[in-house]
């Protein structure tokens, strides 16, 4: 076994600045950064086709990937085969923040040993999609909490805290959670 693949704390050490995480292409990252700076007003439209399969199970078709399934738990009359829409939104937030943390750490030359996010959100579901108690109340998450476990070689806690704040500010999904978004829903 070569020194660059020495087992250290239960994981193989890749030849990159990402520690135990799978390495990302730092040159590719720098090209993305340069492209963003060269044309900061570019807008990309993302698409998803959602198809109801039965009860509350839905297949979501994104790009040419296998369907991403969303379902409801038995308490909400689903088959419990996949995350529900609200859970999927927490997963999207956690993944977006994790991508930003990882990319920014690599950009700074940090070695990331561990990156885990624990997310939880509070919501009132008594309106039952508009068929239950429809009295005035907040609909959707009222509070979301994210706890980040991030270990970087030789990086002080204050720097990791500053990175978390920076990434949260620039996360597309976090911004979708905290600011109004123009939403249009209409019959096709």
Characterization of this structure:
Helix 2 (85-107) packs across helix 3 (157-170) and helix 2 packs across helix 4. The model is unreliable at 1-18 (pLDDT under 50). This protein is α+β, with helices and mostly antiparallel strands and 188 residues long. The protein has helices at residues 26-38, 85-107, 157-170, 172-178; strands at residues 7-8, 11-12, 49-54, 57-61, 68-70, 112-123, 141-152. The N and C termini lie far apart (59 Å). It is built from four helices and seven strands; from the N terminus they run E-E-H-E-E-E-H-E-E-H-H. Strands 3-4-5 form a three-stranded antiparallel sheet, with no helix packed on it. It has a two-stranded antiparallel sheet with strand order 1-2. Strands 6-7 form a two-stranded antiparallel sheet.
Briefly characterize the structure:
With 188 residues, the protein is of the alpha+beta class. Helix content is 30%, strand content 22%.
Secondary structure: elements and pairs:
Blueprint: E1 7-8, E2 11-12, H1 26-38, E3 49-54, E4 57-61, E5 68-70, H2 85-107, E6 112-123, E7 141-152, H3 157-170, H4 172-178
Antiparallel strand pairs: 1-2, 3-4, 4-5, 6-7
Estimated helix fraction: 25-40%
Number of helices: 4
Spatial strand sequence of the major β-sheet: 3-4-5
Largest sheet: 3 strands, antiparallel
Distance between the terminal alpha carbons, to the nearest Å?
A: 59 Å
Oligomer: single chain
How does the overall form come out from the CA principal axes?
Answer: globular
Query: SSE order, as H and E?
Result: EEHEEEHEEHH
């Amino acid at each position: 076994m070569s020194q660059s693949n020495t087992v250290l704390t239960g994981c193989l050490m890749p030849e990159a600045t990402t520690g135990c995480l799978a390495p990302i292409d730092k040159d590719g990252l720098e090209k993305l950064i340069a492209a963003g700076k060269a044309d900061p007003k570019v807008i990309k439209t993302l698409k998803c086709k959602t198809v109801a399969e039965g009860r509350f199970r839905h297949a979501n078709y994104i790009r040419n990937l296998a369907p991403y399934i969303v379902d409801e738990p038995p308490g909400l009359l689903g088959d419990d085969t996949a995350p529900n829409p609200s859970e999927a939104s927490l997963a999207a937030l956690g993944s977006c923040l994790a991508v930003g943390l990882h990319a920014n750490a690599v950009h700074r030359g940090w070695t990331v040993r561990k990156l885990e996010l624990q997310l939880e959100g509070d919501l009132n579901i008594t309106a039952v999609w508009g068929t239950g108690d429809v009295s005035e109340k907040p609909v959707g998450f009222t509070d979301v909490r994210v706890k980040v476990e991030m270990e970087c070689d030789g990086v002080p806690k204050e720097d990791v805290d500053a990175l978390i704040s920076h990434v949260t500010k620039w996360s597309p999904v976090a911004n979708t959670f905290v600011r109004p978004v123009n939403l249009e829903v209409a019959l096709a």
